[in-house]
Amino acid sequence: MKYSVTGFRAASAVLALSLLAGCVTAPRLSLHTEVDNSVDFSQYQTFGFASPLGTDRDGYQTIVSQQLAAAAQKQLEARGLRFDAKAPQLLVNFNGRLNDKLRVTTTSVPELLPPLRRDYYGYRYGLYSPWPSYRDETVVTPYQEGTLNVDLADAGHKRLVWEAVVSGRVTAKTLDNLQPLLEAAVAEAFGKLPATLGHKAP
User: What is this structure's pTM?
Assistant: First the structure.
């Protein structure tokens, strides 16, 4: 039996996730999570994957989807959950996107005194330096931000119970080995899972 979760778009997902991998080791990685506090996470003992995943393309599973699923399975099994492809209690889903951004930076930089002021302050020449003159310099830098969504949905009630959003600045660096970087992003997200997940209440 296959399950699906609506509301996900696969457009550009593979490209976005590939580029996001360049953000995983960046110093300004951003992580945000949302949790349904009304849910008892200790009730969940099994998990599976949404079909299709948000990172799949029409008709087939992408390599990125396979790598993300493998990373998620490793993380969840380490927390005591069991993979169940037929009747999972939790569904895992992924999505990726790429957004154009602008970074605006304004700094004060010293500049030479204008001619009149230099002449006026000439009496200081050879004795000591005048106060430097400063001006604001604004630099606008375009860049791209990659975002990875990791969702956990209650399969029985078909509702989202937990979500992680990992985002960061994308670079143009060519990625020769994508899998370890995707694993790092999933590990970063699942590091914020509810502590009771996989620990059945007595």
Answer: 0.67
